[in-house]
């Protein structure tokens, strides 16, 4: 046994090293691997190879892009990195032996240069230094892979500290039909937690912003954000994710000449290639386009720079007016009214939604809380509420209103505990008042 150990311990140590690298890349660093993949685009063409060799660092960039293309598939990217790490470690050991550093106890030192190299290449400085950026990377990955339940669970375990995290959480709730019932179960700070333009945003968040706007029907805004995301990539890199979005938005809008340009670029890639080649054959086939993007075409608005407007409620209402089946826009409209404290609009848009067949027979929880509390505050002598209220909301909101009337204060400690801490009124009374006190 001792002889066997002496013979194979080095191989075993290298194998353990590879397993550790694979585990790290596949689990805690999976979102970061996704970030690297969408920041490069490797093309299997001679033109791309010659172009990369035209600069002094082109070969290194070519090799980096070749490796990062495999990060599109989580386990495969982790496996490639692990195999390369082990191969690099073995090369370091061979170099050490060539330098007469052959003693067995020196073998573990051959891992040190590889660990430093992996740390420097895989984990960029911005990721290491900024907790906010790490959060954005994680939420962007969950958004891209449509892991709505996992995204909501992450926010429930630890409240997001960035607008991107809040926005991703709200979108995950909306995609599960939970937005208006559970909006205030999660961290909310402002209407920007629903919609925002690209001003003062981390460029990485442009991708997920584009996803949200595409599903809502703001196709031109989704295209603009994808184009901006592409422009912000370092060293004029290309992004398969951005190029696919640009192709999609132009297909939806019927701009097939422009779409063809992006599809031709993607056709020679590994993981976007089959999708691009399929669409190059189908461009102009309106039946097929309707099958793939019919709902987005019906939802879309052709206006530009919609979301720079101060009152996004009007823009969301336009989406519902032009397509009454766009329930996502209807949910966002009511949520935006709640976050901007527009009681009259909440009631008006709720009734509109009910006429369209939504929110019956009982309004969503957050809407009930807003309407009941506001009605009591603004109509103290009225006995009948304008909408049916569930017993749970009636009891909790009624108790809160009684506390306000009794204490004549918005500083009662009970406002920060359940059930008040997960209600519309906690957001209105506590969160916004705290923000206003911090920004006089």
Query: What is the terminal-to-terminal distance?
Result: 74 Å
Largest sheet: none
What structural class do the secondary elements suggest?
Answer: mainly alpha
Helix fraction, binned, reads 55-70%
At a glance:
This protein has 440 residues and is mostly helical.
Q: What do you see in this structure?
A:
- With 440 residues, this protein is an all-alpha fold.
- The chain has 23 helices and no strands.
- It has helices at residues 2-26, 30-37, 46-53, 58-68, 74-98, 112-122, 125-129, 131-144, 148-157, 163-175, 179-182, 205-216, 219-231, 240-252, 256-266, 273-282, 286-299, 312-322, 327-339, 343-355, 365-378, 391-407, 424-438.
- The longest helix is centred in the N-terminal third of the chain and has 25 residues, at 2-26.
- The radius of gyration is 27 Å and the shape is globular.
- The relative contact order is 0.07.
Topology readout:
Blueprint: H1 2-26, H2 30-37, H3 46-53, H4 58-68, H5 74-98, H6 112-122, H7 125-129, H8 131-144, H9 148-157, H10 163-175, H11 179-182, H12 205-216, H13 219-231, H14 240-252, H15 256-266, H16 273-282, H17 286-299, H18 312-322, H19 327-339, H20 343-355, H21 365-378, H22 391-407, H23 424-438
Helix pairs in contact: 1-5, 2-8, 3-4, 5-6, 8-10, 8-12, 9-10, 12-13, 13-14, 14-15, 15-16, 18-19, 19-20, 20-21, 21-22
Task: Summarize this structure as a short list of keywords or feature phrases.
23 helices; 440 residues; mainly alpha; single chain; globular
